[in-house]
Amino acid sequence: MPAMPSGTRARARAETSRAILDEAHRQLAEQGAAALSLRSVAREVGMVSSAVYRYVASRDELLTLLIVEAYDAVGERAEAARDTDAPPRDQWRAVWRAVRTWAREHPAEYALIYGSPVPGYAAPAETIPAAGRVGLVLAAIVAEHGDPGAGAGWPEVLRADVLPGLSPALAVPAVVAWTQLYGTVGFELFGQYENVVVDRDAYFDAVADAAATAVGLP
Amino acid sequence: MPAMPSGTRARARAETSRAILDEAHRQLAEQGAAALSLRSVAREVGMVSSAVYRYVASRDELLTLLIVEAYDAVGERAEAARDTDAPPRDQWRAVWRAVRTWAREHPAEYALIYGSPVPGYAAPAETIPAAGRVGLVLAAIVAEHGDPGAGAGWPEVLRADVLPGLSPALAVPAVVAWTQLYGTVGFELFGQYENVVVDRDAYFDAVADAAATAVGLP
DNA sequence: CAGCGAGCGAGAGCACTGCTCTCGCCATCG
DNA sequence: CGATGGCGAGAGCAGTGCTCTCGCTCGCTG
User: What value does the mean pLDDT take over residues A31-48?
Assistant: First the structure.
C-alpha cells in the first residue's frame, strides 16, 4: 500500500468510529433506543464488545452522540426548509412541516430527543447547542416579521438573553409556539391522537397557522 | 387461624399482587422506568423472580399496569381540582395546575405515560379509558362555558363522537389546548426550559390563560 | 534504522437482566 | 378423604453493560 506518513492510524480510528455510529443509528431506527445494545453494535461492526469501549466510553455516551446527531439533523432540516424570500407565514409553515416530516421519518430519534430522558436522564451539556437550532430558526422568523403588538398580555418570564434580536414582548409567545410545535408532533407520534384527530395534516397546519398568528406574523 | 371458608387463597393473592405493584411503583418513582427490574421487585417483596410471573405475565405487563395507575392518578387529581361552582376560568386554571403539580411530584410516572413509549411502544388497549380522563375534564369545562364563537376558523378534523356534548367548533381548540397542557408540562419536566424560562409558575399560568381564551372561556 | 511505547482487538469474567421449566408442597373443591 | 390446581423455589438459558488482562503491531523517537 502507498506510504501514509501518519494519518493511517487516525484514519482507521475515524472509520471505525463512523461505522459504530452508523450501526448504532441503524439499530436505533429499527428497534428504538431501549433495544440499542453495545454488544450487538460491536457484533455487527465485526469486533468484540470490549473493543468498542476504545471508541465509546459507555452505552450512555453512545446515546448522547446519537442525540446530538438527531438534534443536528432536525435542525438542519428546519434551516433548509426556510426560504427567506417567501412570505413570513409560508416560512413559518414550512419550518413546522419540516420538523413534523422529520419526526415521522425518524420516530425513534424523535423519541430519543423529545421523549422521556432515556436512562437516568440529565441531558449532557454537549447537546445544548444542537438542541437550540430549530428554536433559533423559529425565533428568527418572528424577529424579522412578527408584530410586537401581538406580544401584549404576556408576562416577562424569560431569561433576557435567550433569543437575541427578538423583542421581549414576542419572546414568550415564541417559546409557547415552540412548545406547541413539539407538543403537537409528539402527541401525533406517540399515538395520543389515535381515534381523536382524523385529518392530521389539516390539523397540524391549522395549529401552525394559529401559532403564526399568536406571534404576530402577517 | 380462624376458619376462612374460601377467600384465604384469593386474599393472599390480592395482597401479593398489591405488594408487587407497590414495590414496582416505588422503584419507578426512585429510578425511572428503565431501571425497573422484575427481579429486584421480587427480591424486595421477598420472593424469587419466577414466582412473580404467577402474578404478572411480563415486565411489559407490569409497566402497563403502572401506566394505567398513573393515568388514573393524574385523572383523579384533575377531577378533584375542578370546583364546578367556581368561575370557568378558575376551574380551567385549577385543572391545569393540578396536572402540572402531579407531574412535578411524579416525574417518572409522567415520563412513563407522556414520554416516549418505553420498549417497542404500542400502548395496550386497556390504557385507553384511563388515558382520557384529564381530557374529559377539560372538555367538560369547555362544553359548559366555552363560547362556540371562539371556535371559528378551525377546520373540522376530529372524529365526530370523541368529545360528546362539545360543539364541533370548540372541539378542535379544546384538543389543541389539551396538547398544549401536556407539551408545556413535558418541556418543563424534561429540561427544555432550562436557561430559557425563568419564572415557570407565571409562564405556566399565562399559557393556561391563553388556552382558556382560545376555547372561549369568559 | 532499531527499538520502545502507545493504541488496539480479543478473550475471559463478573454481576445483572427477562423468561422458562420442573419440582414439590398444601389448600381447596368434589 | 382424595385428586387437582395454585403457588413458591430453584436451576438454567440467553442476553446485557462493563472491566481487566494479554499480546500484536503500528508509528514516533533516539
Answer: 94
Inter-chain contacts counted by CB atoms under 8 A, chains A and B? 147
* Residue A160 CB burial class (10 angstroms; 0-12, 13-18, ≥19): exposed
Q: Read off the DSSP letter of residue B193.
A: T
To which H or E segment does residue A114 belong?
helix A107-114
Q: Which chain B residues touch A70 with a CB distance below 8 Å?
A: none
Domain of residue B195, residue span: 67-214
CA distances from A16 to A1, A8, A33, B133, B216 (A): 19, 12, 21, 50, 58
Angle, alpha carbons B31-B105-B30 (nearest 5°): 15
In this structure, which amino acid lies at residue A141? I
Q: What is the per-residue pLDDT for B129?
A: 86
Q: How many domains does chain B have?
A: 2
Q: DSSP letter for B150, please.
A: G
Best of A59, A74, A99, A116 to disrupt the B interface by mutation (most B CBs within 10 Å)?
A116
In this structure, are B137 and B95 located in the same domain? yes
Shortest alpha-carbon distance between residue A141 and chain B (Å) = 18
Phi and psi of A56, rounded to 5°? -140, 130
Question: Distance (Å, rounded) from C-alpha B40 to C-alpha B24?
Answer: 9
Report the pLDDT value the prediction gives residue B170, as an integer from 0 to 100. 93
Q: In this predicted model, which residue has the larger pLDDT, A130 or B93?
A: B93
Q: Are residues A26 and A126 in the same domain?
A: no
Who among residues 23-82 of A has its Cβ near strand C, under 7 Å?
Answer: 46-51, 54-55
3-state helix, strand, coil in chain A (%, to 5): 70, 0, 30
pLDDT, tens digit, for every residue of A114-167? 887 644 445 677 888 888 899 999 999 999 999 999 988 899 999 888 787 888
User: B47 and B84 share a domain?
Assistant: no
> Could you tell me how many helices (H) and strands (E) chain B has, helices first?
10, 0
Residue A148, min C-alpha distance to chain B (Å): 17
CA distance B140 to B163: 9
